[in-house]
Write a structure and sequence with these properties.
The chain has helices at 3-6, 19-25, 79-97, 99-102, 136-139; strands spanning 37-42, 53-60, 107-117, 125-133, 143-152, 155-166. The protein is α+β, with helices and mostly antiparallel strands.
């Protein structure tokens, strides 16, 4: 049975997979797991026209440990944590949609390009994480390239291209 077939669907409306599935699949664990729900998952069909993609959500409560120092009395979600959240959403995507390339492996972040922060993320809010695999040729060699975006509602607040290898 594949990982995808074994995942327990959420009973929560609008949520495909809940926190239990995200935290089970992600190699990162509390307090460094930053994807709470998977809202949409497209495993793709192996073509550039229909690449694997995922939409996830993180509940930014303001209670996360990193807010204790960033910044006391004026909490702002660090940009590096926004990038990490996109990378974790991409990890979920890759581990589920490309299971044959990821069994027994964990992600190793390789780089970030074309990153733009457009607006601060101030708690409490939910951020929507949209990621897609952008280069299927490289994925065949074990290097995964992604495009990611962070939204608050319909507003784009952060975007980046990034890459990882499964090691």
């Amino acid at each position: 049975m594949s990982l995808l077939d074994s995942l327990k669907k959420s009973d929560k409306e609008g949520v495909l997979y809940g926190e239990d599935v995200c935290h089970e699949v992600l190699p990162q664990k509390f307090p460094f797991a930053f994807v709470d729900e998977i809202l949409e998952l497209n495993v793709g069909d192996g073509t550039a026209e229909n690449p694997p993609s995922l939409v996830g959500r993180m509940h930014v409560t303001g209670e996360q440990d990193f807010f204790k120092g960033h910044f006391p009395g004026n909490p702002v979600m660090p940009g590096v944590i926004q990038i990490e959240s996109m990378a974790q959403a991409a990890t979920l995507l890759t581990m589920i949609a490309m299971e044959e390339k990821t069994v027994g492996k964990r992600p190793a972040f390789m780089g970030v390009e074309n990153c733009r922060f457009r607006k601060a993320v101030i708690p409490p809010t939910d951020i929507i994480l949209k990621v897609r695999l952008t280069d299927l040729r490289m994925a065949r060699r074990g290097i995964f390239k992604y495009a990611g975006q962070v939204f608050i509602g319909e507003e784009l607040v952060t975007e980046a291209e990034f890459s990882a290898a499964m090691v």
